[in-house]
Every structure is written in C-alpha cells, then in structure tokens.
Fold these 3 entries.
Entry 1:
Amino acid sequence: MITQPEKGKKNLWATVKKNIAEKRNLFLSSLGVSGCVLLLRFGGLLQSWEWGALDQLFRLRSLETPDNRILVVAIDEEDVSNIGKWPINDKVMADLLRKLDAKKPRVIGLDIYRNLAIEPGNAELMELFRTIPNLIGIETLADPNSSAVPPPPILDEKKRVGFNNVIIDADGKARRNLLYWRTSYDRKLHKSFALKLALLYLKAEKITPKVLPENRQYVRLGKSILRPFDSYDGGYIRADSRAYQVLANFRQNQESFTKVSMRDVLEERIEEDLVRDRIVLIGSTARSVKDFFETPYSGKLFQSPEMIAGVELHANFVSQLVSAAMEGRSPLLRVWSEPVEWLWIFIWSGLGFYLSWRSHSPSRSALGILFLEISLIAICYIAFFIDLWLPLVPSSLALIGTAVTIFIYRAHRQEELKRSKEFLHGIIDNIPDPIFVKDRNHCWIVVNDAYAQFIGYPVENLLNKSVADFKPKYPAEIFGCREDDLVFETGLAREHEEEFKDSRGRIHYIATKRSLHKDAAGNLFLVGAIRDLTERKKMEEQLRSTAAELARYNQQLQNSEVRLRYEAYHDYLTGLPNRKLFLERLAQAIEWAGINNQSLALMFVDLDGFKQINDNQGHEMGDLLLKAVAKRLLGCLRGTDTVSRLGGDEFTVILPGISEVKNVERVAQKIVSTITQSFPISGKDIWITASIGVSLYPIDGKDTDTLIKNADTAMYRAKEAGKNQYKFS
C-alpha cells in the first residue's frame, strides 16, 4: 500500500525548501573548491606553476627601449683565452680601469673579486683603488649557504663596496633583488652592489633614498616608492624574506644594455661618448667562469634555459633602480594583500558556479568557461603592464574546478534517479541485502525478507507501520529516522555508518545508503539499502594491528641501517670521522676549492709519547686520553672544519676556505698549545704534546695523495725538530 504525500501549502513549502537547500549545497561546494585551491596554494603545491605563469607574462611583455645609461664591459671567452688564465692579473685590471676612468664615466662597478693580489701589477691596482673616487667593488656576505669573500681592503676602508649575493628561487631562477642586508655575523647594514652603483649615479641628479615617516619599511627613491618583499607576496609561499628585498621588474636580457669587450677597451676601440657619464659595469661573460643565472626570461618551450652572466644581472638590477628614481618605472612588481587575493579567487570560483548552474547544456557551459578563462588571462596580462602581479593559476583552478564540480554533481544526480527508477520497477525480494522503502511519515511501504530477518520482525509486522508503533521499547534512532529526515530535507543521497541492535539484542555495524525516488505519479519515497559491516570491521581492526606491528619493525630496520652507516664512517672510540670519511671529505674539499678558487689546509697531528702512556698507564687510560684529545681538537676549530682519526694516535684536520697562511698558523699554534695543557683523567693529570705537519692546496698538491704525503712528511720533520711544534710542507 502506497500513501499519498500531503498537498497544498505544505507540499509547496517543502519543494521551495528543497530547491534552496540544493542550491545552497552547490554554492558551498563552490566555496569548497576555492578552499581546496587556497590550501594547495598555502601548501606550496602551486608555487612553481605561479612562477611559470609570471615568467610567461614577462616573456609576453612588449620590448622596452634599451637603457643607454649603462655600459657592460664584458670579459668574454676570447679575453680569457688571450690573457691565458683566470682570474686576470692586476696589471691588466689596472690598465682597464685607467682607460675607462680617462673617458669620465659617472660610476664604475667592478663585478670581479679582488681580495687577493694577483701579480704582476698589484701595487698599481691598489693605487687606482685609492684615486678613482667613483669605483665600487664587490664582496660576498657569509650566509648559511655560502662562505664570505672579503672586499678589497682599500675600497672597504673607503666604503665603496657592495655585496653581490643573489637570492635564487627553488627552481633556480633569480626573481628578487636584495638591496639591504644586516647580517647576523657583524650586525652592520650592508648595501648591495647594484644599489651602491645606482645611488652613486643618482647622487649627481640630487636623488637620495628617504624613509617614509608613515611607514619606515617603505623607502622613497626619486619618483618611486620601494616596498620590502614579504614571505607570501604573489605566488610565493613561506619564502625567505630576510633583509630588504624587492620583487624584481626585469628588462629583457640580451638587448637591454650596450656591451663591449675588455679587449675593445684596452685597444682603445670604443668612443668616449660610449663611456662618458654612464654606469660602467665590468664583469665576466665567459662560460668557463661559470658566473651565470636564470631569470624569468630564461625559460623557453622545447629549448634549454638561456642564462645571463652575473654582471648582466647586476646591470638589470641597477637599471631597475635608476629607471624607478628618474622615470617612475616601477623597480618592483606590486601584489595585492592576501585577503584581496583570496577574494579574487573566490570571485572566479563564483563565476564558474553561476555560469555552470545557469546553463543546462554541457557544450554551452564549456564555451562559457573557456571565455571566462581567456578573460582571466587577458586581465592578468593587462595588469602586468602596470606592474601588478595577479594570481592567475589559483584563479584558473578555482574557475575550472568549480565548473567541473557542478558538472559531476548534475551527472551524479541524473544517474541516481535513473538507477532508483530501475530498482523500484524490480522485485526487491530477490536482492539478498536488506532493502526498505519509506514514505515521509516514516512508514514502511515495502520491505524484503532480508530486511525483516535482519531487524528481527516479520514482514507483516512492519508494513504500513511507523517507528512510533515500536516506541517506547525502541527509540526512533534504531531505525535511522534522523537520517531519513535529512535525506527528505536536502534531497541528497546519504550513506551512514552506525551501530544497530536488532530485536534479539545482537549488535551489528551497518552502512545504510538512503536516496529519494519518485514513482510515475510523482509520489516521493525514500529507498534504503543496508550492508552489514560487522565482519569487515573486525578484519579492519586486525589489519590496523598488523600494520602497526609492521611499522614498528620497519622503524627498527631503519634505525639499524642508520647505526650501521654511522659505524662504517666513524671511529668507534672517539666518534670522529674515520679514514674512509676523511678521504671522502678531503676529496670534496679539494673539488670545492678548485671550483671556487679557494685554498685549503691539511694537518697531520701525531701525539708525542703516546705509546709510553699506553704502556705505563694501560690501554684504558690511553683510550680515555684519545677521547679527550679529540674533544679538544674539535674545540679548536670552526664548524666547517673536519677532524678525523686515522688510527692509533694519528689525527687529521681539514681547513677549507683558507684566505691567508697566517690563519693556518694560528690554528696550528692553538692546537699545539691546547694539547700541551694537562688532561685530568681518572684522578690523574696526563701530559702530552703534539707534532703537526701541514700541507696547503694548491701549493703543496692538487690531489688527496699528494697533500696527505706532504702533510705526513712535514709532521715527521716536526718530530725530528724536537716535537711539540708544527711544520709546513
């Protein structure tokens, strides 16, 4: 028997409520898509895509007029070949600076390290450093990722030095310009190489930077205002925002500046007007020097990246700052605040929702979404012309994702309706799972035998009965009335897992799928299908227990692997690197020194008289002494140095990044003095001395075997000379 639903006002109000709920849920789905896009963005998963979109906007931007205020003097591969070595000697550098200074440039930027003398011609070069007032040199500031390279002392004394550190994004490209930096090493405020050149050039135009009183983080430079980069600017997520950086507004790479070779300057083949009153940057463009960077203009489809030399990158930074101050060209990309970007993303998600919901034709909806996507790209492109970086990728994902969600929802609803009609036309008694059909009053209209057997009542006791007929013995929740109401109110199918106690008192874990269906007369019914999950729940619990046990075993295996690897590379007694790890680190240090034109020192430390202590005091006392010596050696060195034990009483020390030999002498003397002091061990004072042999890279050798042999020989010479001292190879 089928009961008819109420008609009139109640039916109409129910229909209105259902339509409102349906659209509300769809709108919430749209917000959910936007929320997921924002989560992806904050998780950093869209960062590389947004960088790629930004790079594409740069490449699509129309060409700008070359900046004729800047001249790049390039030391190219032919120049390096003619000179015969790199770095070029001080005499050639002095000749180059003298010829350029004679043509009266406004600023000269030397983007080449000159912290060490490269004879011949050092005295001549130092004199030019003193007498050329508009010459700016470079230094590299130390940070966790790189060692410091000091500037020329004379230029540093005259405060004519800028740092050339460049911030590189995770994809290897430079998109930010670092202007000021107060490092944790010296707490001094440093200016970048590009900023020093730009300010010296602008000084003649009576333009100086001024901090805005209303916001001291903002700096006015001529016609522009500089705003510091924030960790979440644009498409960046948790980016490094230390010091004072800005999002760089790049010019095109290759044609933006006039470029001449060093040989053209030395052979007087350039006109004075090409240099007079300009910013002249001197730097290497030779591939062999490996001073190259990628910028937004580097990437090209189906081609390898087109990199630019470091001197060209700094020229770009200088040009941005000078153009900003004198012409009002923005030196940095502007971005919206985060709440405004969120609103922008939600708006495009809403547009996708509105268009997909209004159009019932999939083809028309697809064309509409395509039109909106093209419009979004056009808006972002136009905004980029006024130096505004809008979130293109997350907005596109929100637009398309919302449209796809609406399409899936419509298809799902239509398929459910079709399946429900086919189901109601069948005979549900042939289905082994418990099936029931209810009306709005929670009366059972049709049930199959499986359902009656499951809950423990005969079929005839259920038909045309409501839950109220079973009260107060069984509450309404036992038959899922609350879930039925939710399905009737929302019109959406629901699947619910719960505990169920049948009439015999047995507990079952069940999953009930409920959905609404209409018959040919338009009557609305709720059809439910039940699955008994009791056995599955038991298996899931067993699987969770097994998985936890496997995870524990896996962790034990990982811990064993870490321990074995540590033991393979470290001395069992002192915990220092053993011979194997020492040789690996020495080879790495030599390779790094060769690439970066650095020196390193290798020390062989041998304890004098250790055998007598071992024989007289016992091996246990000897082992304790070796541990104490290892600890003192570690206390004498930097965190970047390596101390290792080769065996017995032999230790080695690797000192990378050595700028002067006297620094090695200080370390060697410190080790000798420290070892000479008494060792309080087990209530006794043990005295011992050390003999040290030192070899230097590349002076005493360029490979591990040669350096080790020379350091060992020097150590034996120290012993022959009376011990308790050090000797160089």
Entry 2:
Amino acid sequence: MTAVPVGRRRDDEPVVRQVTEDLVLVEAGGRKVLAAAVCPHRGGRLKYGRVDGDRLRITCPLHHTTFDLTSGAPLGGGVRRPPGGRRPARPGRHRSRPLSRRRPVTTTPTGAASTATPPRAATARHDGVAPVPDAERTSSPADFGWIWPSAQFSFGTVVLGALPVVFGLGWWASASAIAVGVAVGTVLLAPLARFGVRTGTNDPVSSGAHFGVRGRVVGNVLTAVTALGFFAIAVWTGGTAVMVAGHRLLSTPTGPGALTVAMSVTAAAVALVAVRGHETLVRTYRITAVTGGAVLLGTVLVLAPDFDPGYGGSPLALDGVLHTWLLAATASATVPLSYATFQGDYTRFMPASVRPGRVARASGTSMFLSSLAALLTGAYVTTLFPVPDEPWLQGLTDAVPDWFAVAVVLFGFAGTLPQAGLCLYAAGLSANSVFWRSSRAAVTTVVALLAGAVLYLGAVVYDAMNAMSAFVTLLLTVVAPWAAVLFVGYGLHRGRYDAEALRSFTTGGGGRYWYAHGVNPRAATAFAAGSAVGILWVNNPLYVGPLTDLTGGVDLSLPASFTVSAVLYGVLCRVWPEPLLPPPAGAAR
C-alpha cells in the first residue's frame, strides 16, 4: 500500500485531491475516481487516506477502514492497531460496527453521473482528552477572533472594569491602569497557546510534560475550580441583569425567587451548549462575539451625552494615586490570565503544521483587544454612577433609557452563554482527563449539575457571590505559578512533546514524563514556592497577606508568584537537568 504525502509523490504514485467539500479526486493505476470526502464510519477525511494504486483501494486515516474505489464497498478495518503499533485514540469510544453493517463510501469514475448523494461532511466527533487526530484538526488561529471576544463581551467581564473607578481613580488613570494590566496579563497568557498545537490535547494534560503524568492533577484542579467559579459569576451577573432590566420594563418580581428563575434558565442553556461540545461552542461564539460587541458599542453611544472624560474619581482605596493605580492594574491583569488553563481546549483542534508563534500572536491580539474593550466599557459606565460602588447592573439599568433596557435583558442572557459555556466546557474536559473511561459529554453533564449547585448556594442561599469573586481572584495567584512553569518548560523542551507519553495515566503509568512516581519534583517545588509567595502578597476583601506591608498595601501577588516560580524552575532544571531527549520517532510534536 502506497502512502500519498502531499507534494512529495512520484509521477506513478497515487494522489488524492480535495475538489469540493464533499468530494475527493483519487488518481491511481491510470484511473481517476471521485469519492466521498469523508469516511461514513466516523467522519475521517479521506483526503489524508492511504491509497493502494495496484488494487484501487483507499484506507481511512482515522480508524483504518479500507474501501474498494471501483465499488465503494468496505473491505475491512475499523478500530484496530495500525502499522507501527500505535493505538487509535479512545478505542473504547470509537468501537467499530461489524463489517456487514458498515456503509459503503460513494465512488464515481470521472465523466460519469453520480449514482448516489455523497455523505455530508461530518463535523469533528473527537471531543475527549486523547490527542485530536490530524484529520480532525481543522480549526484556525483566526478562530480566536471569535473565541475571546465572545467570552469577554459579557457582563461577567465588563463589570470587572468598574474596579479602578471603585478604587477611586479618575477616568484617565482608570483607562491607563486597565491598558497596562491587560497587556501584562496577555503577555503571560498568549505563549501558553502553543501547547495545544504541539500536543493535540488540552492544557491540564499537556502540563504533565513538566509536572509529571500524575502531577498534571494540579492543572486539573486549577481548571475545574477556576472554571466553576467564573461560571457561577457569569451566570449570576447575567441572571441579575435579566431580573433587574425585566423589572424596569415589565415590573416583573425581584428577589431570591426571581433571581433563581433567571439563573436557572440561563444555566440550563449554558449547560446544553457546553455538553454538545467544541463545534457547538465555536458556532455560538461566532454569533455572540458580533452581538456582544454591538451591545457594548451601543452602550457607549447611548451614554455618550452624559460622559465626562474629566471625571476625577473619588476617595482612593489606598494611600496615594500610585499605589491605587498599581492595585487596579494588577486586578486588570488577572482578567486575561484567568483563561490560562483554557487555551488548549481550542488550539488542540488547530493543525500541527501551524506555527506555534502564529497561534500565540492570534490568541494574544484577540485577548488584548477584547479585554481592553470590555473593561474600558465597564469603567466608562461606572463614571456615570452617583455612587461608584453601587450594584453595577442596577446602575447600568438606571443609566440607560427604557428602550435600551431591552438590549440589557437580551445581552444578560445571550452574553452569558459563551463565557459560562467556555468555563463549563473547560471544567468538563479537565474532569474527563481524571474520569477518562467516561465520555466527555457524560462527565460535563455531571459537572454542570455540580456547577448549578455551587451557583445556587453562592448566589441565593448564602448571598456570597462577592466572597466568591474574591476567592477566584485569590485562586489566580496559584494559576500564575502554574503558567510560569509551563512558560519556562516550553523553552527548555524546545516545544517538542510526546503526545502518547502524556496519556500514560491510561495505561498504568511510566514513560517519558513519569519522573519520580509520576511527579516532577522540580516543577512541584517551583510551583509551591511561587504560590506561597503569591498568597502572602494578596490584598483583597477576603484576605490580606502579610507581605503587602512591604508595598504599602499594593497587591503584587500576580507578578511575584509568576516570577518566583519561573526563576526557581529554571534554576532547578539547570542544577538538576530534566531528561530532555527528543521524542521517539513517530511521536506527535
């Protein structure tokens, strides 16, 4: 059987060309045959199939089902061990049907009329934590142009832009603190986008290359807790917006009962989107990024007559403008960094041939611009409040005219879907790498029920969402050192990873990333030290660390924790080198 690498064939070798979305042209044995572009078994792309020119057969690259090109009949294959001994991804999920029940692939000699309608191109069915097959990695770095704006253009993010004004800064000081903070957070976030492209899996699993196969659990816990916290905040703010604006428009009830109903409807819609997975989320992002941007722009235009760029602020939260400005910049930096463990959920669907630097630039540019727009809108609106620290959604609803309150209701619901959906999907995917024998959809359903319980207890029973917000901010102090280890580790490993070795937890352990009983002590030490320093330098309503006295109350937890972990990990790897041998031949890179 002859492989057909693109651009490297001899004149007598078979070749497969994509001619339409549904058809490929196979040239082999002096004949030309049109065939369906996707395998009817699991949607593998036959453009990348292997062609036997002598017997006129093509083999699907995904699960190795072979078809006769003259008749389209399936001849064998399905889920089995391919040449070279590498098992296909998640054999438990992709169990083959008996040969007699498999559908044929449509084939038509060129020049003849098609006798059957080709199967419709399948969407990517792979949505677990196993490395995504090359045939299904069809996303593009440009998708970040939808992903990050859809998440940031929601009340859950926009409301955070109020913090610099609440801290007492004027408009220009608030705007500059937001711009600098978002830039710093983006610089720390964007390089991590390279992992999914290199490994084909999500970031917590990828982190096993540096933390160890068992040590990856640190990333799992951080992802799950951060995602559930931001899910609760997003649904709470969205549900509150629906309740408050609905009361103004239709005199509907307010209070715990009304908030419960509004949040329940919103959370159910979010769970439906997240459970359906990657393809549904990306389609949702394309819509909500545009509509969310339109609502933010509309908010700015509607309130423009009352806006005063000379707004001077109120009493400062800390002693001195500089200390307060640094506090606001640090708070703004946490917004991009809060997505540090989520990028691989999307970059794993991008082809391995895409340059990692291009992916990092696309993610960083989109994150910076969308975060800047969202937070500046939040600060802009807050300068119009009679009392800066009044409930933000109530202040927004009171500030806009009645006709625009309709947009607030719609945006409170629709704008919550992408951000909360992104969080819930990440939490489910992270949990799936722990409960890997179950399907991602089943695990995400269970996580959605848990998230609903957290939301109800935090927002209705204990009225503790402000404390939850402070807790999530505190948690980001631990995310920063985790990101620092990956940041430095990528450079030390020169961006080369063995994707199969990352999943040795499914086969009992061992392999390239096993280190010491599954944990890399260098990374664990650096992470623990950075986290300890960061926690001791926190200053928020929930907790004040003793090291803040050194900086006059300024919260430097984020830069301090990142720097300590990055430097210490680099030093430990120099003194006690990791095994940095190139991955085995044929391993994913």
Entry 3:
Amino acid sequence: MHILLIEDDLDLGAAWLAALKLHGHTCEWLRRTGDAPICIDDGLIDCVLLDLNLPGGTGFDLLVRWRRAGSAVPLIVVTARPGLEDRLAGLDGGADDFLVKPFATEELLSRIHAVVRRSARQASEQWALGALTVEPRGRVARLAGETLDLSPREFQLLVELARDPGAVVAEEPVGSKAGAPGRRSQFRRHRDARVQSAQEDRHRAHPHRARCRLLAGALILDWRRLWQPSLMRRSLAALLAAFVFVLLALLVHDYLEVKNDFDQNLAIKVRAEALAPIIARLTDPHEAGLVVVSVAEMFNTRRRAAGQQPGLVVHQLRLASGEVVVAVPASSDQAFHAETGRVTTADINGQSNWVVQVPAGKWLLVLADPATGEWPLLASLASDIVDKLLLAFPLVLLPVWLALRSGIRPLRQLAKAVSARNPNDLSPLGVQPPQKELKPLATAFEQLLAQLRQQVLLERSFVQDAAHEMRTPMAAIAAQAHVLARTSDPSARLLAAAALEQVLQRAAHLNQQLLELAVLDDGSLPPRHRQDVVTLVQQCLATAIPHALKLGLDLSLDAPEQLEQSLDLSAFQSVLNNLLDNAMRYVPRGGRINVILATAPFGWALTVADDGFGMTSEQRARAFDRFWRGDGVDKPGSGLGLSIVHRAAQRMGAEVRIDDGLDGRGVAFVLTVHSRP
C-alpha cells in the first residue's frame, strides 16, 4: 500500500515513515502545502495522512481542494488540534477519519486499512442509466462524465427516479424521501409557533388591560419625563429596536431564501438534462408524454405549496421539427423560441420566463421557468411578516412595560447584578446607568472584569498551546518506540533509538521552555540586584563555546571591561540564552555570531548578530508569536525561544527589536534597557 504523508514536524514525520515501512507500506513524505500534488487520483496513492498545521497554508486547504476536484482517495486527518470544531470541519470537509495526536501506531495502521476497505466497497456501488451514472453511497451523479451540482433534495429525487427507470413515481413517496416539505415549511411552522406563543401571552396579560391604559394615559400627559434618561425608556426603545431588527432580519432571510430559489431556476438546464435521458429511452409519444406530465405536475404542485412562487414551470415535449406533443400546463401548448443547451429568456403569455431546450433522443424537452420582479417579491414577504409581528408586538410590550415600571430600579439592578454573580463568571456586567453617582462604580467594575478576563484568556491560551505542542513529540515517541519494539534489524533499531533519544531531548527542552515562560508570565516582579553584565555574558558564552565549535561557528564578544547595572538576573539570562540558542540553531556552518554590549544615553544595549540567512519582513512581524516557526523551517524546535525573549524583555522593562545582521546579512536582535538606579 502506497501512503502519502503530509506532516511538517521532522521528528514525527521520520518516526511515521519508519513505522509504515516496517509494516510493508511504501510512503511519500511531504512537509508543505506547496509540495502537495494538485491531483491525487493517479491510481498510485492508496491513502493520505494529512496534518492540519502546515507551512504555506493548512491541511483544510488541501482537503477542500482535493474533494472539490472529485477525489475519492481515502484520507485521514492526523493533528494535534483536539477541538470539536476542527473535527467537524475535517469530517464535513471530506476526511474519512480524524485522529488526534498522540495515538498508538497500531491504531493508525488499523484505521488506514479500515478507510481503504470502506473506500473500495463504496466505489463499486454505481448505477448506470445511459449517459447518467449515480453513486448512491458517494452521493455523486455524473452526466456524460461531468459531475452534476445537485442539492440534497434533488439528488434524492434523482435516486428515487433512477431506482426504477421508466416507471411513473407517485409524488407523495418521492416527496417524503426527498425531505419534503423542506426548510421553507419548517421555517413557516417555526413562525406559526411564535405567533401561537404570543397569543397565549395575550391571554395571560388580559387582567392587566385596565392598568395598561392608565399607564399609557400617564405617558401622554407627562411626555417630558419620558425623554429623560431612564432605564425604562431605554429598555422600551431597545425592545422596539429589537422588533424592527427582527422584522428586517426575517425579511432579509425570507428574501434571500426565496431569491435563491428563483436564482436556482437558472439550474433549470440541469433539471432538463437530468430528465432528458429518461425520456430519450421512450419512443411511444403517449409514454413520453405521461412521464413529462407526471414530472411537471409534481414540480408545479410543490411550487404552489410554497405560496410565493411567481407561476408554474412550463414543460413541453416537442418533436425534432418543433411541433409540440405535450404541454403542461395545457394552456401553454403554443411553441415559443428556445435555444438548445442554453438558458435564454422568452415572453410566454405576457410574462418573462427562463427557457432551455434539451435534446432527448427523438424528442426535444423544453422547460420555461417564470421570472419575478424584486419589489413584488419584497411586498409579498413583508405583508406576510408584518401582520404577525404587529400582532405579537403589543403582547410582548405590555408585560415588559409592567415589569420595568414595577420592579426595576437603577441602584437595585446594579447591586443585584454584582452580588448575584458567580465567582467564576467574568463576563461583562452589561450595566451602564445614566446616573453620575453610579457611573464610576460600574466603569471600575467593568475594567476589573476586563483585566481578569484577559489574564484568564492568556493562561488558557498558554495551556492549550502547550498541550498542542506536547502532542507532536509524544506521537513521535510512540511511533519510534513502536519501531524499536517491532523491528529485528540491528541498524533499524539503532536508528530508532537515536531518533527516540532526539525526540526525548526535544520534549525535555520544550518542557523547560514552557516552565520558563510560565515563570515569566507570573505577575510578581523579583527583586533586582546590582550585577556586572559583562561578567554574566562572558560566563554564558563560555558555556556555549563548545557547542558553537562543534557546529563550526565563530562566536565572539564585543564589550567594555565592566558594565554594572541593576537588573532581573533570571530574565536577562533567559534573553541571552535563547538568543544564542536561536542563532546557533539557524546559522549555517562557517557562520559568525557576534554578541555586543554597549552603553547608551538611555542606558545600555545587548545585541546578538549573525550572518546567516536572515528573516523577511513578514517573518520579523511574527517572530515573537508563541509557537510560530515560519514557513520552510527544517530545524526541530517549539517556536517558544523568541517568545521567551520578548516576555523576559517586558519583565525587565526593556524593549527588543530585530535589525539587519553582520555585513548586511543575517539578523540582529537588539535588547535596549533603560538604566535604573
């Protein structure tokens, strides 16, 4: 079995490659979306393992592109993103399975075999009706090799008709299987339920009618007080605005829905072409006419049931000479102009129609769909909605008015909102009283909640990102351990053991960086001590020199003899260590790394410059983002080093920026620190 693996992580990709080859599979490993093939239906790929986080795009982009092209190759999403929305997006987008790292290698192999078996079984189920082929399991219909764009209801209707070719199918069974009455009728039932609920509210509000009339009279006599800032006025205005917005939303929703139905009439060509092969097989005029009449009556009955369709769709069966054999409705038996295979417009009985003509064997099938104007459509929809909203508005207004009048007071509302909150509820208070005595309290409370929400959001994001990053090395460890336990080849065992040790070192380094970042994110500030910065830098470089020599790098220091400053020792060491580690990781062999300490009028600066490959402006803009490593990076890492540098600089009260490196090449990270007494 040949498997296409698309995974950007070096350790994990190498581990899966070894595990798949151990079990007799051939594997092609790609690391970027740009390297992925345009088409995977070449008969060489049996299954695709697709990661979601990829350089140059996402796995979703590849998944959507392949499925839209009609690819049926089994595909399994393997990702460290455990969210429900990601699983739904992957499966709805066309993935055959979804695995969250880490997982056992045996499970991955079993799922590969399962999706391949399932795909082979589904591919064999196909109905052929002349030029029309239907795959019920795959929900694909093709006409002369071209995939038809059908809605779920249209596809189900086609399946029911194709199940018994040539037979006349009753409208009710087909409608029930095709999902009738559809979303439009469901929407109407929902609105009728709202109206019924409003009528029940009116019945319950009946004993208070006298009091409502008194309140209305008081408002008319004292209209000036109505316009003063008050919770009651604003609440009632908001209620009125809500009804207006509901009216507009329902009007727009209905308009777009109906307009979309009308626009789909341009797909009348597809309907005609789907019906034409069935008629083409009939030679008897009576049988062909019976099929046309049955389909036309079924289709037009549904249009009448919708209530807002602009007319009936004309179905004509003509001879090749143009003579009309059958016409539905019967009043449209006069021939009108239609072009073969092309949707045009024509006037029929004084009304504009979309017209298409499709050859069907010895017959010509002509369909005409009435068009409609914009304003009549809007007027029809608005009249249907306004009547029901006008009935519901006073019934909703009166209980709200009574509740506000009798029970709500600004101070009580604010006190109750604060005291009744759950200790874990950090959502906005949502109370902005107009009284100047209450505004400072409400504003201060909202600011406190915003700060707490931001802190919780940062902590939650950090935990989620850390868990996401730990999944990949854990999956690589599981795969390498599987290879180490199953293979009997001594050389393969040595390679697996070395790779396992490398992944363990990477996981340990990631854990250390996460702990370091968690310490830096702590809001408390440690005490500062007077230190000789030059001595600290020399000690750090002395530790890094052996590793630099091993990598073939030239490591140098330019600094004054002494530079005493008051600083946060742990934060400064984090900056220097991570900048050196980043430089030695990405500067090629033979390169130079220069550490510069210099004084300035504002304080002092630390610069770590190299002559490596450098960074583009886009990469510099995102360099300090957590867990971001950029496109085209072929070195293992976590994407936390520069984030730690940025956070440590903030803790020191310093700034860090990115400049050009040595001799106009590479990159330089400059830490500027303002001196403190």
